[in-house]
Amino acid sequence: MAARMQPAAAIAGGVLVVGALAAARRPALGLGGLIALAILAPFLIVPVRVGAQPPVIALLLALLIGASAVAVVRRSHALFRDRILIVQGVYLLLILLATGIAWPVSRDVEALQTGLKLAMAAAVPLLVVMWLPRSAIARHGQLVIVGAGALQAALAVGLHLAGDAGIRFLAAMSPAGYPAADIQRFLPDEVTPRATGLLVDPNVLGVTLAMVLPFAMVGSTGSARRFALQATAVGLIVAALMLSLSRGAWVGAAAAALVVVASTRPRLGAGLAVAGVLGLVVPWPGGLGDSIRAAVVQRDLSDALRLGELREAVRVIGRYPWFGVGYGASPDVDMFVGVSNTWLWIAERAGVLAAATALGVVVATVLRAARSIVRDPLARACVAGLAALLATSMVDHHVASFQHLAVLGGALLGATLVVVRRSA
Asked: In whole angstroms, what is the distance from residue 11 CA to residue 215 CA?
C-alpha cells in the first residue's frame, strides 16, 4: 500500500487491515482500537473504491457486530440481561424502524446509510458489556482514552498555531477521506479561526475532548512520572478546548471537572460551582474572565439561529411525533429539519420515543453509577464523561448525528455499566 498509494490513503488502509484482523480475531482488542480511532481520526475511509468508499470506522464496527453475533450463536459469549441495555436495544430498533419507514418515500441512499451507521453505533454499549471486563477497562481503558485524546489535542494545538502550514497538512489528508476545501473554521465574524484537529469541526473536537478530560484528571496520585504525564495531557486538552472556541464544549468540560472534584471534595466542588456561576453572571471589567463570559452568555448570530431551530423543531416533532422524518432531508418543503440539541434532533429523525429511550439510558446509567463515584476513580471518570456528554448535548447534536461520537458515547455508557456492576 505504501508503494502504490499516497501516504494518507496508505495509512487508512493499514488501519483498516490491522483493525479488521483485531475485530475478527480479538473483539476486545478491536473495540479498544475502534475507540482510539474514534478519538483520533474517525473520518478515514477505505482507500480502495469498490462501488463506494465507506468509513473505516463503520466497517470495523460492522465486523465487531458480526463477530459478536457469531459468538452469541456459538454460545461462547452471552448478552447480559440488563434493563438499561434492553432499553438501548429498543433505541437501536427505533433507529432502524425510522430509517425503514422513511426509505420508501425518500429513496435517499445517503439517509439510509446514515440510519444504518447510527444503528450500528447504538449497538456499542452491548458490545462493550459483552467483551470488555472491568480489569481490561481499568488496565488499558484510561491509557487508550487519555493517550488518544492527548494526541488529538496536541495535533489540534499544533495545526492551529501552524496557520497555513497546518491547513496544507490537513489538505494532504484528503486521499484518506478528509475534506480538501473549506478546511479552516471561523466564528460567525468570519475572522477568528477555531481549532479542529483531525475532527473537521471545532464543536466535534470540543465535545470529544470534554468527554476525555475526566479520564486524564483521575488517578493522578501515583508516581511522579504518571502525575507529570497526566498533567501534560490535561494541559494539552484544556489548551485545545480553549482554541476550539466551542462554548458547549467549555460547559461540558466544566461539568466533567466539577463532577471529578465534587465527588471527593464536596465543599471545594460547591465553591467552584458558585464561582463559575458568578463568573458568568457578574460582569467583570476586562480581562480573561470578561472574555469567557462574553463568549458563553453573550447573544449573537448563532444564538438567534438556535432559537429559530428550536421553534422549527417543535413544528417538525408535532407533525411527525412517532417515527420522525428519517435521516435525510425534510419530506415537506415548508419545514426545516435540523436543531442544535441532541434529544430534539433524535426526536425529529426517529421520533419522541427514540429520544426518550436515548436520554433515559444516559440518565439511568448516571443514576446507577452515582453512588460509586466517591470510592471508585474509574466510575468517577465515567460519570464525569457522561456529565460532559449531557451538558454538550443540550446545545449540539453531534453526539447523536456523527457515528464516531455516537460510538464514543456508547462506549462510555457500556464501560460505566461494566465498572459499576463489577465494583458493586
From this structure: 28
